């Protein structure tokens, strides 16, 4: 298995809803990442988990809450989002958070719309 | 963190070779140069990575001069399906992957 699987592929949520994005990989990678991408812009890093511990938080608002239950799973919990949070949310993994020489594997993303 | 500069867009025709040059003037000794490809509504896909000289794989070639202040991604004989955004990144061990603006490549029939 050489894929990063993200669910759901599409999500529409209201500003008062609570929802979660899920990411899964079975490549034995020990680093996992959340990125946010707005239309026609490059992906922006949000969070990095290395060996299931949060190592980087790029000053992301607290309405986004990451969780890494085990080495294969990464969740992003969403609460009280704003319409400007609508974007493509990408999950990625790499072999080791300290050695990026093997490249990152990205999922296809979750297209989130906040109404 | 080394900043990268690459053209915003490039047009080409099927069967031609596409060369995208990226400048990274303040690249550090331990930094690697890596390129990703992204299609609309998909995650970026790793293409190639190198440290110096030339690297080639089944998809592309990467040319890095001795001073490493720039690099060129070469896509041989492009097809319509190579229409995408191509990102040049400079990465050091233990550092996060930070994307710059990317180059939108449009391959025409």
Structure description:
The complex is a heterodimer of chains A (115) and B (109). By secondary structure, chain A is mainly β. Helices cover 0% and strands 56% of the residues of chain A. Chain A contains no helices and 11 strands. The model of chain A has no long low-confidence stretch (mean pLDDT 92). Chain B is mostly beta strands and 109 residues long. The radius of gyration of chain B is 13 Å and the shape is globular. At the A-B interface, strand 5, strand 9 and strand 10 of A face strand 3 and strand 4 of B.
Main features:
heterodimer, A: 115 residues, mainly beta, seven-stranded mixed beta sheet, four-stranded antiparallel beta sheet, 11 strands, globular, B: 109 residues, five-stranded mixed beta sheet
Short description:
The complex is a heterodimer of chains A (115) and B (109). Chain A is an all-beta fold.
Q: Which regions of chain B contain 5 or more consecutive residues with pLDDT less than 50? A: none
Average pLDDT of chain B: 92
User: Please, what is the oligomeric state?
Assistant: heterodimer
Proportion of residues in extended strands of chain A: over 45%
Describe the secondary structure blueprint for this structure:
The complex is a heterodimer of chains A (115) and B (109).
Chain A: E1 4-7, E2 10-13, E3 18-25, E4 31-37, E5 44-50, E6 53-57, E7 64-70, E8 73-79, E9 87-94, E10 105-106, E11 110-114
Parallel strand pairs in A: 2-11
Antiparallel strand pairs in A: 1-3, 3-8, 4-5, 4-9, 5-6, 7-8, 9-10, 9-11
Chain B: E1 9-13, E2 18-23, E3 32-38, E4 45-50, E5 53-56, E6 61-64, E7 70-75, E8 84-91, E9 103-108
Parallel strand pairs in B: 1-9
Antiparallel strand pairs in B: 2-7, 3-4, 3-8, 5-6, 6-7, 8-9
């Amino acid at each position: 298995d050489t894929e990063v699987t993200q669910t759901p592929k599409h999500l529409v949520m209201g500003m008062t809803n609570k929802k979660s994005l899920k990411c899964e990989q079975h490549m034995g990678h020990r680093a996992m990442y959340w990125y946010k991408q707005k239309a026609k812009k490059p992906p922006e890093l949000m969070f990095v988990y290395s060996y299931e511990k949060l190592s980087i938080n790029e000053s992301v608002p607290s309405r986004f809450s990451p969780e890494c239950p085990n080495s294969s799973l990464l969740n992003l919990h969403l609460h009280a989002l704003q319409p400007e949070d609508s974007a493509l949310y990408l999950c990625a993994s790499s072999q080791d958070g300290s050695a990026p020489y093997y490249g990152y594997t990205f999922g296809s993303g979750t297209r989130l719309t906040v109404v | 963190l080394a900043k990268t500069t690459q053209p915003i867009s490039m047009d080409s025709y099927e069967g031609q070779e596409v060369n995208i040059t990226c400048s990274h003037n303040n690249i550090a000794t331990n930094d690697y140069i890596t390129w990703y490809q992204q299609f609309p509504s998909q995650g970026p896909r790793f293409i190639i990575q190198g440290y110096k000289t030339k690297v080639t794989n089944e998809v592309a070639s990467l040319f890095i001069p001795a001073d490493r202040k720039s690099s060129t991604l070469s896509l041989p004989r492009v097809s319509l399906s190579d229409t995408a955004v191509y990102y040049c990144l400079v990465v050091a061990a233990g550092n996060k992957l930070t994307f710059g603006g990317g180059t939108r490549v449009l391959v025409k029939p």
